[in-house]
Amino acid sequence: MPSKKKKKNNDHQILNLVILLISLLVVIFSLFKIGIIGVVLNNFWNFLFGPAYFVVLFYLLFLFVQAKFIRKLELSVLFYVGSVILIIVIFCFIALYLGGKDFGGFDTKEYLSLAKYLTKEGASYHAGFFGLSFYTLFLNYLSYSGTLIMLIALFLLSLLFIVPMTAYQSLFNKISDKHDENVSYRKELKLERQKQKELLLKQREIEEEERKLELARKMNDEAPEEIMIEEIPLKTQKSEFQQKYIIDLDEKEIRKPVELPSEKEIITKEPRIMPVSKKTLNYRLPPLSLLEKASVKASNINKTSAKIKGEKVIEVLGDFGIESTLINTYIGPNVTKFEIKPDSTININRIQSLSDNIKMELAARDIRIEAPIPGRNAIGIEIPNQETQIVRIAELMNAVPEKKKNSPLIFALGKDLMSQPTFCELDKMPHLLIGGATGSGKSVCINMILMSFLLRTNPDDLKLVLIDPKKVEFSAYHDVPHLLWPVITDSNMAANLLKRIVVIMEDRYDKFAEIGAKNISDFNELVYKHNSQLNEGESPMEKLPYIVVVIDELADLMATNRKDVELSIQRITQLARASGIHLIVATQRPSTDVITGVIKSNIPSRISFAVASSIDSRTILDSVGAERLLGNGDMLYSPQGETNFIRLQGAYVTDGEIERVTSYIKKEASPKYDDTYFALENNGNTAMSASQKDSEDSLYDDVVEYVCEVKKASTSLLQRKFGIGYNRAARLIDMLEDRGIIGPANGSKPREVYKKKED
């Protein structure tokens, strides 16, 4: 008996497979109209169901497979009802689309008479018998508008039936749970903020009592009775709220203020950096609502223009006997790039030599040819757009990649030729050189970088050192809490503070060696672990912030303190990466006496804006191309380790945006300057005045007048003119250079005289 049942089941299984195979053949012959059989089957299904007959075929095929082969797939009755309603709605929508408002129904007898055309290829049966029947029924009772509303309602009802109820319940539960979690979060956040306020008030009371005690001692009065200062115990474990929401509140023990050494002690003792890692209480990052929104207007002018220009470029090349094909067109904010593939027998240099001809034929302001594009078998021709587009900082800050959101020193640059945002990580670069002519967008780029830092970082995680010899570029950043020192405008002090940066770097490496850390991230991680496992009586360690040094105009520093500045930059760029110190250098005079070989070799990441000549482009990028840029933020970016350049349109930052952001963060926190700045400032002024007194020469005024008159200066010239020895002449030349009257030595060329003869 069991064998007979088994044989019977096998027979049923074979029969099911045969039916499935026949069904598949019917579907294939119908869809592809294979032979006369395929045409008849296609017309037959069209006659019954119209153009959407394949929906019915696949649905019936699915029901057969589910019933005979996938019995485990249990579907509810609502699913079948919903699927049938959905098929009817599809038929009716097709009939509505083909019939329109003026459709007056159809005659059944007249429609059935069309069956004689089943063998005719290309026969048309409107929306099919079933589609026309249901549509006519709805149209007779509901009119055209009512039919449309009813079909939309039935479509939504079918989706409600097809999707299982468990999916809706899961969605509603998630929404409810999220709401409850938000309510709980707000309550616990309110309690934590109240604790912080109480802690801050307690600290202020202690500091006020100590201030009164110190004041009494200075006045030689009888000190009041000793005040017992309550110490708040150190919390070694995070609170339940911190563990749940991962918020670092840094509630540490309140200790007595550390007495700062005097300026004299700072200069004589071993240099050090002040601890700056104490978390600023209640500091909030500036909201992006302070920035101006990007324009959302869309225009087809550039698309239409790009199509015309692309055909024109191919035509111009063809006129010179260069057969080529347009492969791709990339429309950026201000530039369109055409990828062109010339014939393999064409010499690439011929296309390079035709740049002026293409420029003239297109009536373009300037064009740039990249021949060939690195890694592609094509040539790139970049042409200015008909309509320019401003890139705003707000849209870039909203587009920071998810993988890079935790990067400490990421900043936005602009958009590439495919209108994709471009971001850089300064801690991986690790230094940046920016060059460009006046008005090309260099200062706006620096503001963009600084704004990226201010919008994303806490003052305790990043410290800025801003050197502004022009005294106006960084005026908006005065008293920003991220500053390690006030904005530096004096060239001599800038040279001294660059030396101080070198000392900080060496001091950090000593700290790394003490605890076995390789870089700043390892050091801060070890500090965090140490502070989270403190025993009673142990003092917490201070983490180190990143330091970014920004020099707005290198040429001015090189003119006054060339040797010291170049040596400090060399030390910083060679060694400071692991210590978390990074350098951004900018200049509007990209010449070899400013961007020396030592500086270039140690700063591999570079940005060039529009320059006057190909010589300046080679000075910055070691290649031509920057002289073809358009200005107004158009740049070439050369990343570290890359041989090709990336053309970008830099973001535009307005003075109003800078003012709003800096005003906001100034209200959130106040700067905590390193006290060595004031010591160096006083010491530098004293040393300068003493030097001037000791080094005065009776011939100094006469030498200044003579040098300004003849517009040149050298040691041998002073020896011949004033009849003095070499040592005295050399000392006078050094004095003129130190006081900014003449420039530094420039090889065999004469020194440049900065001061003009007074009338």
In short:
With 759 residues, the chain is of the alpha/beta class.
Model description:
The protein has 759 residues and is α/β, with parallel strands linked by helices. Strands 6-5-13-12-11-7-10-9-8 form a 9-stranded mixed beta sheet. It has a 4-stranded antiparallel beta sheet with strand order 1-2-4-3. A hairpin with a 3-residue loop joins strand 1 and strand 2. Helix 1 crosses helix 2. The termini are far apart. About 10% of the residues have low confidence.
Key features?
759 residues; alpha/beta; nine-stranded mixed beta sheet; four-stranded antiparallel beta sheet
Give Rg in angstroms: 39 Å
Bulk shape: elongated
Beta-strand residue percentage: 5-15%
Write down the overall mean pLDDT.
Answer: 78
Please tally the helical runs, counting DSSP H or I stretches of 4 or more residues.
25
Relative helix content: 40-55%
Biggest sheet: strands side by side, in what order?
6-5-13-12-11-7-10-9-8
Q: What summary fits the major beta sheet?
A: 9 strands, mixed
Give the termini distance in whole angstroms.
129 Å
Helix/strand structural class: alpha/beta
Low-pLDDT windows of residues:
220-279, 683-695
Q: How many beta strands in the DSSP annotation?
A: 13
